[in-house]
Amino acid sequence: MDAFDAIPNHVVIDILNKVADVKTLIRCRSVSKRFNSLAAQSDSLLLQLDQIFAAVESEPEVNSPVANFFRSIFKSILPIFFRSAKPAETPKSPAQILAGFNRIRNLDVGLYGGDANLEKGAAVKWKAEFGETLKSSVIVAFRSATVNASATESPVNAVETDSEFVCGLKTRVVWTINALMAASTRHHLMRDLVKEHKEMERLTVRDRDEEGTVVMSAAGMKEYREAEARVDEKGLGLERVRDRTEVPNVRMSMRHAPMLKLKSGICLEAATLVVVRPSGVTSDDNDAELATEAFAADCMYGEAVTALLKRRRNVLEMNSF
Description:
Elements: H1 9-19, H2 22-28, H3 33-39, E1 44-48, H4 65-81, H5 94-97, E2 106-111, E3 123-130, E4 134-142, E5 144-147, H6 162-166, H7 169-189, H8 191-196, E6 202-207, E7 212-217, H9 218-233, E8 240-241, E9 244-245, E10 250-261, E11 266-278, H10 287-294, H11 299-308, E12 314-318
Parallel strand pairs: 1-2, 2-6, 3-7
Antiparallel strand pairs: 3-4, 4-11, 5-11, 6-7, 8-9, 10-11, 10-12
C-alpha cells in the first residue's frame, strides 16, 4: 500500500479544500478512483473562467421565407468547403464545469475581466448583493487620481451648492447604471449554478480587474430558488432583460466631491459614492455601515468612502431597467 493511502479521507478532503482551484481539482480526479471520489467532495472552490461561456441567449433568427431559403443553401454548401474543419467547441458554463462537485459550500468565481464601460482614465469599483434580484449595491468612482496633488479637499462642513452637484451628474448616473448592469449580468450568468447547487452557503463573483463583486448569501440563494420555483409552476421565467436580471426600481443615495484629497496624499477628481437599494427600503441610516463594509479591505477606496460619507447626501430615484 502506498503511504498516501494511509491518510484518512477527511484529511485528504481538507488538503484538497486548500487547493481550491477547480482546474487543478479536475486533474486530481483523473489520478485514481479514490481521488476522483474525494475531489468531488471539496466544499471550498475557486473557479477561474478564461473565456466567455455560452450563457448569453443568442438573438432570434429571422424566419422570413427568403431568410429560410438562404439559410438552407448555406447549410448545405458549407460542409463541402470545410470538410476537415473541426466544429468549434462551445465554452462550458460554470454549472457545467462544476457538475461533478456535489458538496460546494463556498464558491469564488473569477471572471475574465471588468465590464463597465467608462470614459478613458475613469475608475469604478462596486459591490452588489443579490437574492431574487438586487438587494443593495455600493459604488465608488472617480474621473482621475493624482499623487501628492497640491489641491486640498473642500471643508467637510461646507455646503455643496445645487449647481455643483448638478455639474457632471449625467456622468455619475452613467457610471452607476454601468455598474448595475454589470452586476445584474453576473447574477444572471450564475442562475443555473445557484439552482443546481442547493448546498451552497456563499457565492462570490468577481473579475480579475478587481472592478466589481457580486455576492449571494445562503438566504439570498434560497430566495432566488423559491422565486424561480414559483414562476416555473406557471410555465414562466423570472423577468429578464436579454442576458441579465432586471434591475428593480431603486433609490440612490449619492455623495460627490469635485476634488477629494485623501490623507494618503492621493487626490481624486469627481469622486462619487453611491449606495443603491430597491425603492421602498427605508434603511438609509446605515449607508455608512454598508459602504464601509463593502470596501474595508481596500485602503484607497476605503479611505475615499470614509471621506465621502461626510459629504451631503443627495437622493435620486431610478425606474426599473
